[in-house]
Specification:
The chain is an alpha/beta fold and 279 residues long. It is built from 9 helices and 9 strands. It has a single domain, classed as Rossmann fold. Helix content is 49%, strand content 14%. The protein binds nicotinamide-adenine-dinucleotide. It comes from Lentzea indica.
Length: 279
């Protein structure tokens, strides 16, 4: 008989990208519900603010997810620190690049791919042996709705998020019959710092907007707060979902990718234009 998915609240979790946005909200939520939390991020100041705001047990490490050896050292430290079996690893850290393919700056795309894809792979490889040894727990990898369909000026981001989806789907099949699960997260627009932390050299639509102006437009069009995203992700993992859509726009994107897999952009751009006019 298949096992019931584990309750994660109250049990130890690992979260990367925990200094901001969705990762920060996951840390606050799960720690508030009694989970010991092991947190990692590159942003030392913000990570420290999050860690010191928590009442429960916390291990926090400044870490670049691109560094496979650093992720392995972090996993070794977590193994020593664990007050109880590890229940979930949220490979959440991520960044964005806005650029037309024609004008790509290769180092920007490499920077993104190293963080978004290889960061998730390094985190999975570092922590999976702990979960497999326990025969229990869940790897939770953050893709995006841009891992369901392609969007203009987001080629590297889409590629990295499709890659996470493929990697995690393959892992899920390998883990069949074990007590370990692999889950993919597909958030729609969430009101976080992702656009402010993005790399953008010029406005790819030629409208002369600055990064700050584009970030403000992105934030105005988002439909879900990071706290709400964390609640949806937490509940989805506890319900045993393999794939978690976050926010109403994520359900719309998912439906479009199925119904009109080659023409969805016409619908998406009409909806975006309408939404821009109304904000
Ligand atoms: N915000 C959205 O609309 C949205 C939509 C879909 C998917 N996502 C994904 O959600 C995840 C979380 O992003 P967010 O929206 O909370 O953004 P955010 O910018 O608010 O938080 C991302 C965190 O990751 C950290 N980070 C970046 N590079 C790192 C590295 N090399 N090593 C360690 N930490 C690093 C940042 O310092 C930051 O604290 C990302 O994977 C992102 O792609 C976000």
């Amino acid at each position: 008989m298949p096992r019931r998915p584990p309750k994660i609240a109250g049990r130890p979790v690992v979260i990367t990208g925990a200094a901001s946005g969705i990762g920060r909200s996951l840390a606050l939520r799960l720690s508030g519900l009694g989970s010991p939390v092991a947190l990692a991020d590159m942003d030392e100041a913000r990570l420290s603010t999050v860690a010191t705001s928590l009442c429960g047990p916390v291990l926090s490490r400044v870490l670049d997810v691109r560094d496979a050896a650093a992720q392995q050292r972090f996993a070794n430290e977590v193994r020593e620190w664990l007050p109880a079996p590890l229940v979930a690893v949220f490979n959440n850290a991520g960044v964005a690049v806005t650029s037309a393919v024609l004008h790509t700056v290769p180092e920007d795309d490499e920077w993104l791919f190293d963080i978004n894809f290889w960061g998730v792979v390094h985190g999975t490889r570092a922590f999976l042996p702990i979960l497999v040894h326990q025969n229990d727990g869940v790897i939770v990898n953050t893709s995006s709705v841009f891992g369901l369909l392609g969007m203009p000026h987001q080629s590297a981001y889409c590629a990295s998020k499709f890659a996470i989806r493929g990697f995690t789907d393959a892992l899920r099949q390998e883990l069949r019959g074990t007590g370990v699960r692999a889950v993919t997260i597909h958030p729609g627009g969430i009101t976080t710092n992702i656009a402010r932390n993005a790399r953008m050299r010029t406005d790819p639509e030629g409208l002369g907007r600055t990064k700050e102006q584009m970030a403000a437009q992105f934030e105005a069009a988002t439909m879900t707060s990071p706290d709400r995203a964390a609640a949806i992700i937490h509940r989805g993992v506890e319900r045993g979902k393999a794939r978690i859509l976050v926010g109403p726009d994520a359900y719309l994107f998912d439906a479009l990718a199925r119904i009109t897999p080659t023409h969805y952009h016409a619908v998406v751009s009409r909806l975006r234009a309408r939404r821009r006019e109304s904000v």
